[in-house]
Structure prediction request, 423 residues.
Amino acid sequence: MAVEQQTESERIRADRERFVARGVATTPLVVARAEGARIWDVDGREYVDFAGGLGCQNTGHGFSTDAIHEQVDRYLHQCFMVGMYEPYVEVCRLLAETWPGEAETKSLLVNSGAEAVENAVKIARVATGRPAVIAFDHAFHGRTNLTMALTSKVVPYKRGFGPFAPDVYRAPAPYPYRGVSSDDALRGLELLLKQDVDPESVACVVLEPVQGEGGFIVMPHDFPRRLKDLCETHGILYVDDEVQSGVGRTGPVWAIERYGVEPDLLVSGKSLGGGLPLAGVTGRAEVMDAVPTGGLGGTFGGNPVACAAAVAVLEEVRTPRFQAHAEELATTIRTRLDGFAARSRLIGEVRGVGPMMALEFTEPTADVATRVTAAARDRGLVLLSCGIFGNVVRILVPLSISNAELARGLDLLEDSLGDAGAL
Ligand SMILES: Cc1ncc(COP(=O)(O)O)c(C=O)c1O
Prediction:
């Protein structure tokens, strides 16, 4: 009897409890279908999507479907190491064409952001002949062993999972809202290079230009340049992690373009595959080619279907039309969020770059943000939090969203802030 009264969502959630590992975090949403910036659940309820599959739908749900269908009909898997295929080469060509600088680049394609970060470190180590890596406060670079060591949040990412990879050091990152300036961060890094690790044994630094999981913390404009100068002084490579901030998320293809800094290696992922698993490492040709043949790769890395999707995605996000729409969205989002902050005692800061924007609550606890994301779900808005303290609400809306849909989503966000007692 009780079973007959269950909704589809309840039935699938019960099976999820029974069969899926607890360690994988889930929300109650059970998806049936998605299109553009809208999601429908298995009970037919419609949602505005402000999460984009965790930043993987910059071009919108369904954008690459035609390219995917075409490739599926030709062939699926080959393994690039067995039989090469053009879609892989095309993605690498497009990554070279969209490279934020002058260098001639080459790329490697893999399956996930974490795998790409791991490979960037491998390449930097071989290219420099040095072992050490420097990551920053509030960093998130993944959940594999090496990237857990680089990631800067104990619960839930590190507790109990050690021992971690050695030769990883942590420097302070700027966080102006919490009182850490570029000067403070660079002083901390210089101290680290005096106290803990010889700069001559450092292969690379790894930095997100806008820290994603760490709380949408935007690096101040001078910081990447000053960090790059310090790297050049010591022969350290600059790895730009654009897994969350890249592929058009902030407007330009890569967020680092806003800083005018040319990295040595750039890591991409998330939206690159338009919803299929694909990530990349791109870098100066001589750095990439420091690794001998066979040292890089993997069975599924650069899967042809994911590459076909990525070609469509990269062609789209480099267009002036896409970038102009992103700027338009950014203005709308910023105006509305600033308006919320002006009426709220609980919102401490509105920040972001382009449409990659967030609200940080003053209290360093997850309470308010958790109430807001739950209220949003009840109202039909898919919304995520982030931050070391879980006190940041972030917007990762598909950038194909129409102005009217965005306005509706922001209305729902306003109502949800009200429900949570934050307005
Ligand atoms: C900046 C950054 N780097 C790396 C990763 C890891 O990517 P993945 O989850 O695909 O392994 C993420 C994921 O959120 C990320 O935001």
Q: What stands out?
A: The two ends are 42 Å apart (CA to CA). The first strand starts at residue 31 and ends at 35. Residues 320-343 form the longest helix (24 residues).
